[in-house]
Structure formats: C-alpha cells, structure tokens
Amino acid sequence: MTEVAEESSTGATDAGRTAAARSHLPGDPSMWFFVIGDLVIFGVYFVVYMYYRGQDHDAFLQSQAQLNLTIGTLNTVVLLTSSLFVALGTAAARGGRTADATRLFGLALVCGAVFPLLKLVEYIPKVIAGVTPGTNLFFMYYYVMTGLHLCHVLLGLVILCFVIRNLRGPAMPRISFVETGATYWHMVDILWLVLFALLYLMR
Amino acid sequence: MTDIDTAATHSATPARPARNWRKNKKLDQWLAFWIVPVFFNLFGLVFVPLSWMMPPRSPSAPQSEIVGFMQSHNLLIACVILTLTFGLAPVTNACYLTQMKRMSVSPVFRYCLIMGATTGGIVGQLFPMFCFGLGAFRPGYDPKILAMLYDFGYLAFIGSLGCFCIMWMAFGLAILLDENNILPKWLGYYTVWQYVTELIAAPVWIAKSGPFAWNGVMTFWLAMAMYVSWQIIVYVCIFRSIKNQPDDELENAWLETEPATPDSAAKADA
Amino acid sequence: MDVTTYVRNPLTYVWALLTAVTVTSWLIARDGGAAHHLNATVTVTVLLIAAVKTQLVIWHFMEVRQAPTWLKVTTTGWLIALFALLLGFYFGAA
User: Which of A107-111, B30-34, B248-252 is the least confident region?
Assistant: First the structure.
C-alpha cells in the first residue's frame, strides 16, 4: 500500500522502481556534497547579512523601499514553476517517458530563462538612477548576493541544456545525470526563496 | 646490473637507504610537492608575524599609520624573504599541472590554469611585493605616495580575483569533467567554491570599510576560512594522486620501457 | 503528452501551495510592510513562510522525503539552524 502511494507521489508508474524509491539518493552523491556545502556557505552569508542589518536597520529599511517587490515576487514564482517542471520531468524520465521528460525540461528551461531577463529589467533602471553597489551597505549586499545567485541560475540553465541533450540523445538517457541536474536546480530555487524573504519582504 | 640494484632496494637493506629515494621514479613530482609546505610556511611567516600584513590592515587607516607600517623594520624583513622566495610559487602550481595532464579533458583547461596562475602570481604577488618593497627599501617617499602604494599593494593582493577565478574554474571544471577520475569529484565542487569566494571579493574595489572592504567579514575572513581549508585539502588529494599514479603512466616512463636507440637523444630534447 | 497526469500530480499540488503562499507573503510585505519601519510581525511571518516553502521544495521537489535518513537530518538541521540564527540576530539587534 505504502509502495503504491510512493509511486503515485513521484509520478512513476513502473512497478520495478518501487524498491529503489525507498531511501534513494537522487543523482550523483558529489552533487549533494556541493548542494549542502553551498547551502551552508550561503547560510553564513545570510546570517552575516542579518547581523549587519541589525547594526543599521533604518538605512536598510529605507533602501529596501527602493526595491521592486513585484519583480521579486514574479521571479520567485518563475523559479518555483521552473522547479515544478524539473521535478515532473525527473519523475517522467525515471518512468521511461523520455519524450515527456524532454518537453518538461524544455518548459523548465524556458521558464528559468525568464529569471535573468526579469533581473535585467530590475537592475538596469536602478543603475541608471544611480543606485549601485557603492551606494550603501544594503545595496552592496543586494547586488552581490543577487548577482552571485544569478551566476548560479545561469550555470543552472546551462546544466538544464545538458540534461535536455542527454534526454534527446540517441543513447538511453542517464537518469543519474538528470537527477543530478535537477538537484542543482532545486538548490538554486531554495537559495532564492530565502534571499527573497531577506531582501524584499522582511521589515 | 639493474636486477641487482632493484633486488637491493626491494630488500631494504639499511646499507643503501639513500639510494632508494634517488631511484624513485616520481622524484620530480615529490620534490615539487614537498616544496609546498616550505613555501606556504615561509609565506605565512612573512605575512603574519613578521609584517602583520595579514589580516589586512584597514583601507581607511589614517596616513600616519600607513606611513609607520610602510617604513617599519618588520616589513623590510618580510619583503626580503618575499623577494628571495617568490620563485617557489610556480613550483607549487606545477604540482597541479602534472596531475591535470593525466585527465581526459582538453588541454585547454591546463592552459587556462597556467595563464591564471601566471597572471595571478604577477598581479597578486609581485605587485604587492613591489609596493610594500618600495615602502620598505626606499625611505623618503611622500606620505601621500606611501598611502597610494599601500592601497595599490592591498588591492592587487586581494582584488586580483579575476586571474584566480579563471584558474580555479579551469581546475574545478577539469576535475568534474575528467573521466579518468584522477582527482575526486567532490574536490571539483570544492574548487568551484574557491571561485565563488574570489567573486565575492570583487567589492573590495568599492568598499573602504564594513564587511565588503578588503579586511571585511564577507570578502576576507569567510574567504580565508574557505581558502585555507581548501588549500590543505587540495594538496592532500594531490599527494594521494601522485602516490597512486601507476609507474607506467609517468612522463618519464618511456625511459624504462623503450629500447635505447639513436633516436632517444631527439626524444629527450622534445 | 497526457497533460492530465501532470496537472493532477502531487508535485503540482505542492507547487500550487507554494505559489499561493508566495503571493500571500508578497501581499503581507506590500501592505503590512508598506511603512518600511521595523515590523516584527511581518518579519516573523515572512521568514516562517520562507522556511515552510524551503522545506516543501526540499522534501518534495528534491525528493529528500525518499532519501536516506542522514540527508533528511542534514537538510532539516540546516533549515532549522539557518532560520533560528536569522530570527536570533533579528531580535538580538532590535
């Protein structure tokens, strides 16, 4: 009974995969090393940010007022949707539905590509208005942290392309590779969820 | 003759321990490798207790402090040691390259590593050496000039991130894409973090105080924590990699395997 | 491609929840936090929402729910430690 529930929750319909569904580490273990380490490193950066914010919360609050909350929220939804497509695609790949998986990852890529575009729409007016990393500590943090995250997103988009190529290729797709790429992408999503709350939402 | 020699080395008779290490086929790599702790200890000595260049002084220090530092006795000694031992840096980088040659990836990666190391070494080590050296070896400069040299030296040292970014990205990617698994995959990811912390150092050009200055929490302390642990770990991995390298994969393996011919001289020059 | 299987998928339900909660936190910040003054209620709410969202992504999208125990412990531990420290520093400074 539990196994059936597991199957439907991952979307996989193959009975043969139930044994693997329990206690399964998706993808390459070294990618998990990277993901956990990256989460810890960013976690430290987040906490240090909170500390410095506490030293000068008025300046931080006034600077936060200049952020574009709408674009921030849109970006969050964009990444969440992209993550959904990646998760669905991974399950489809595992279930042997390679054509579906390819389409789903394609959707994930298109969705994910919207993120850097929205970021440009956000950065450019600010920079033109003279709000740069040098303006104050809040904006230094804002540009550095979102910039670093943006680099992660761009790398993630490249990885998604490789996953799609793997799925479309003449050879059998390597599920481990698909899972590894998916894990990275979800990490990028998580980092943004926290960043969004810290920079845009909290008061 | 060769058989007797090998038999002697295998039986490890106390009479001939000195012959053992010279016969070691990986002698070149081991020599380069063991220079590493010497180099790093010397540099650690130079930068910390001798000159207190590290942890970095404040970018917004008053001029009198800057002048005092630039003309201090300790800085002079530090610069002398730096000038004499700077040449060891390329040797420590050579350790990476010998192992990178064994990887299945394109040579482009190790060329990037060489170029990154070279430019980084010039900008990140030579320039500060000149700047602080000028202050130490040439008394009588105007305080304003000394202040500029101080800025120049520190910014070159900490702000030369672009070169090292390329170097560590090339190394990290090479490890990750390598199908021969010369170095472990997690080291590749760890090296990518090196690149990330170098990127985070970019704001030192702008901030003169706070966490993003060249002595700041974000740009210096956290980066140092990552860097020191990474540097130690990478050399441990290189050690294991050299140790585990099969003898027939060595660059000089052809000396033993191929028969001596008149062409050998030409090959030795290659 | 049978779209229905993907729409009526537990993962999609999780996504719908995540999106709804994101929009909620946006409204809280936009309206409740419009004044851009220190506001502990808004902060605690949005941070807790972020923690819940993160946990959902880790558990369902990253499939940690079906992962070995050590991974469950590590990711949950990271989440708790991070948000505890964030809230700690927020209230510590105020």
Answer: B248-252
| A132-180: pLDDT as tens digits | 888 889 999 999 999 999 999 999 999 999 999 999 988 888 899 999 9
The reported pTM is 0.82
Interface test with B, best of A32, A39, A44 (most B CBs within 10 A): A44
* B264: in domain: no
CB contacts < 8 A (A, C): 160
CATH number at residue A198: 1.20.120.80
Q: Domain count of chain A?
A: 1
Which parts of B12-142 fold into alpha helices (H)? 17-23, 27-45, 63-70, 73-85, 88-100, 108-121, 127-137
Which are the contacts of C17, defined by CB distance < 8 A and separation ≥ 6? C56
Q: Quick check: is B20 in a domain?
A: no
B142: nearest Cα among B134, B153, B154? B134
Write the pLDDT tens digit of every residue in C31-84: 888 888 888 899 999 999 999 999 999 999 999 999 999 999 999 999 999 999
In a domain, B170, yes or no: yes
> Pick the residue with more confidence: B154 or B234?
B234
Min Cα–Cα distance to chain C from A25, Å: 5
Euclidean distance between CA atoms B187 and B193, whole angstroms? 10
Q: Is residue A61 a part of any domain in this protein?
A: no
Whether the link from the prior residue into B55 is cis, omega within 30° of 0, is: yes
Between CA B9 and CA B19 the distance in angstroms is: 8
- Of the partner residues A81, A90, A202, the one whose CB lies closest to the CB of residue C15: A81
Residue range(s) defining the domain that contains residue A149: 79-203
Range of the domain at B235: 27-89+97-248
So what's the ipTM on this one? 0.93
Q: Is residue B143 part of a domain?
A: yes
Residue A134 φ/ψ, nearest 5 degrees:
-85, -5
Would the CB atoms of C93 and A81 count as touching at under 8 Å?
no
